[in-house]
Amino acid sequence: MLWLLLPVLLLVYLLYRRRTPKARPWAGVWLWKRGRARRFRPRLDLRLLLLLLGAALMVLALEDPPLAPSPLVLVVDASASMAAREGKGTRLDLAKERVLPLLERSPEAVLVRAGERPEAFGPAPGIALKERLLALEAKDRKGDLEAAIALGRRLLKAPVVVATDGPPPPGVEGYVGVGSPRENLGIVAVAAGFLALGNGAGRPLPAQVEVGGKTFRVEVPPRGYARLQGLPKAFSARLLGEDALPLDDEAAFGLRRLGVDYPRLPALERLFRLLDALPGSEVRVRLAVPQGAPEGPTLYLAPTGGAPLPVLLTAPHPLLEGVALLGERLPPPPPPKGPWRPLAEGEGGVGLLYAAEGGLYLPPLVAIQDRPFFPLLVYNFLKPYREARTGLLAPEETLLPTPEAGFLPRERGGGGRLFALLAALVLLLEALRFGRRA
């Protein structure tokens, strides 16, 4: 409503000036002419000043400004895409510049760094968190905004403002979008002999990748991906040239020796020597029936089994890659408890192999230790834990998300009543001072 201020004050002034002039007695015309010629300095018109002040206070009452700044939960995206170049700095630098005034004037605030794991500072006066805000860095593989918002709400019941280069998360009271469309290429995936490139630009871009001293060229479609195959099983790759985000220009893939904790049985000794595993605790092997979800990577071998049944059905699963089970006869293990799903079933839907997140459950060792599929199954189970990848970001970070129109939470009013009261007092004073004379 502040746009009304100037026209209202102008209207009051014009209406006041066009009123009938007040008659003033003079001793003679020659004195009036003499006074007019001397151009007397005009005196302060107290009545006009009070009327203008009353009108200005009424407009401020319509605006209803807040009496004081409100508390604030400020969530700042610290994912890698916020390190993309934006003008003379980065997207994170731009976000800091825009949200710093909000933080400084907040009487109580919580600052949350939204990385892979959110980190909170506060509650504290906003000005006390200024150095924490300025020290934030954007380098995480991705940013978990939902977890960061939930953490901030637990620490302080206040409006949430999110500064990010992506779209506004649902349910927030304020959003500061930073960033503009930029051209960026990056390595988004690596595997044995393979890598994938992502393109965040709106046009096709040629990419040059250096792998083992050789340079490979590939064209990446707009806002899409391209693959590069025929590479060594273990390699390091570097993207040549400059783009908006340097954090995704280098990556590497390799295989490492895995530490396995297993019972010292001859069949298992031979198997893990074949798979080049070391004694350790990264993966566990247990002769037991699962009683729930595995706490870590665990291979279960049933202590007993029923009468062997032919495998009639297998489920599509990465653990069964290259494994031929149809026609095999396996003893069904005791059914596990928890989130286990059968990988292979026999007659009547009886489960013969089971899998869960981070777990594999097989029939008794004596029934499968000499079968060709056994070492391949265990190899597939260990494969994700043997592979070492470095330098990778989440693919959406390489595509450089672009923001939407920002918005800020509407602060509670309360100042309108105060300004209305002051306007009434000023107009009452004007009426008492000049009403009787009029």
Written account of the structure:
- The protein is 28% helix and 26% strand.
- The chain has eleven helices and 25 strands.
- An eight-stranded mixed sheet has the order 16-15-17-18-24-23-22-20, with helices on one face.
- Strand 2 (85-86) and strand 3 (89-90) form a beta hairpin.
- Helix 1 runs antiparallel to helix 3 (46-63).
- The model has no long low-confidence stretch (mean pLDDT 87).
Strand order in the sheet with the most strands: 16-15-17-18-24-23-22-20
The number of helices is 11
Radius of gyration: 37 Å
Low-confidence stretches: none
Overall mean pLDDT score? 87
Approximate helicity band: 25-40%
The general outline is elongated
The helix/strand class is alpha/beta
How are the secondary structure elements laid out?
Elements: H1 5-17, H2 29-37, H3 46-63, E1 72-77, E2 85-86, E3 89-90, H4 91-104, E4 109-114, E5 119-124, H5 130-134, H6 145-155, E6 160-164, E7 174-177, E8 185-191, E9 194-199, E10 205-211, E11 214-220, E12 225-229, E13 235-239, E14 250-255, E15 259-261, H7 266-274, E16 278-279, E17 283-286, E18 298-301, E19 309-310, E20 313-314, E21 329-330, E22 341-345, E23 351-356, E24 359-362, H8 365-368, H9 373-386, E25 387-390, H10 395-398, H11 415-434
Parallel strand pairs: 1-4, 1-6, 6-7, 15-16, 15-17, 17-18, 18-24
Antiparallel strand pairs: 2-3, 4-5, 8-9, 9-12, 10-11, 10-13, 13-14, 14-25, 19-21, 20-22, 22-23, 23-24
Helix pairs in contact: 1-3, 3-11
